[in-house]
Description:
By secondary structure, this protein is an alpha/beta fold. The chain has two domains: 2-256 and 473-490, Glycogen Phosphorylase B (Rossmann fold); 280-468, Rossmann fold (3-Layer(aba) Sandwich), CATH 3.40.50. The chain contains 18 helices and 19 strands. Strands 1, 2, 3, 4, 5, 6, 7, 8, 12 and 13 form a ten-stranded mixed sheet that branches. Strands 16-15-14-17-18-19 form a six-stranded parallel sheet, with helices on both faces. Alpha-D-glucopyranose binds next to helix 1.
Amino acid sequence: MKILMASSEAVPFAKTGGLADAVSALSLALAKIGHEIKIVLPRYYNINRSELTQLEGEMGVPVGGGEEWSAVYTTELPGSPKKNPVAVYFIDHEQFFGRDGIYGVPWEPDFLDNPRRFTFFCRAVFQVCRKIGWYPDVLHAHDWPAALVPVFLKYGEKQRDFSKTVSALTIHNLGYQGVYNKDNFHYTNLGWDVFYNAGFDDWNMMNFLKAGLNAADKLNTVSPNYARETQTSIHGFRLDGVLRYRSADYLGILNGIDTNVWNPQKDKFIPKTYGIKDMSGKADAKAALQETFGLPPNPDVPVVGMITRLTEQKGVGEVFGPAYGSAWSICRDMNLQVVLLGSGEPWCENEIKSLSYRLSNFKAHIGYSEKESHLIEAGSDFFLMPSRYEPCGLNQMYSLAYGTLPIVRNTGGLADTVQNFNEETGAGTGFMFDDLTPSAIYNTVGWAVWAYYNRRSQIEAMRITGMKHSFSWEKSAKKYIEMYEAACAVR
Ligand code: ADP
Ligand code: GLC
């Protein structure tokens, strides 16, 4: 099949979270099976044009009654199969993408012109196909920034030269929908009848994702449990009605992990690789982690790691909320060490900095570091992820692959990937709790620390169980193919 991925993020070019990992890894997995995959991305400022090849000539993109001119660059996705490489196309437009930040910058977290930028991007996807004379079987859009792709297909392009193309839309995070003043609607060049018929209308605002969910031939999200949860008012972010309406076309397909990058047997960022047969490298990683973060070197104390965007979704309020969160009492009462890598909301960054001055067993690096994220996954004994909601979550799967036991809330993809510890049988791969409260987090971390000191053989057995589990993309890629085929069948 010919499949085009439209996304605002894809590693290694642009990343703010798991979306970037998922888009590239899925593309590679599909290419390995033999499908023809192309990705279209904006050419953000940090993507160096001199490392790309420019296509000849410019391309006109109709937006807002006029036309925006843009150049197109291309390269191969690193890690592509030699015989069937994934091509990446970059849409180059100085005014829209020639600036720092993907969606915003700290002083302007959501750029004022985002509706215009991403309307332009979605339109440009079709123009790229025309320019290279390649019409895909499936246009696969990811999250709200690409959600107008299925809309443009249904209301216009399908009646033109995209008559044989179908669309799929993946929800990586329902918390972000692209809701803007409807004054921005004219950038789409669609009529006001379409505004209402396509379901753009959201209490008199314009909702990108809602329109995409109505227009796409097939929909999915990134775990079966989150697909169920999003059809309820608790987790539906006001779109549960739309998702229930489309439930016959809506699936949950679990993400995989890129086992070339996240694999303790070949990890380049850790001091010594390891595997089930010889776990000594894990102890080396723990020592290196303690040294890197300035914690007292001690192989016998449990280390709890966290790598996270510091935002409400991730449950950071219940961990770090001033005079409320559980971090202070966890570190004060328990014989453990905690390391954190993350960045995000300023209040949370400040609270974390303050805690790391006051507590000798809590150390944090505010920022983004690939190397340190690998070291934390490998060197920690436990990995804490108390998410408020979690469409899939990648870090808990990385943890399992590295023999690090996740401590997670029983929600979304976390519930699909972690099995709770059973003290009677020793079964399980991690520690789970239901309610997002500081005391539930305190108690569950306490339970894990208790097991570390008192049930050592069960802990070691759980590590092995987790490492044996396969979270490869192959299985998921096949499910995507089934979804594409189902969409094509009704075309
Ligand atoms: P989300 O996409 O909601 O943030 P995921 O668990 O799906 O959550 O993916 C997060 C990805 O971002 C992982 O690959 C994780 O390692 C990475 N990540 C998040 N914060 C950092 C950071 N500060 N440094 C390095 N990697 C990070
Ligand atoms: C989103 C979700 C996360 C998921 C990722 C990749 O960022 O928050 O749970 O793993 O997308 O699909």
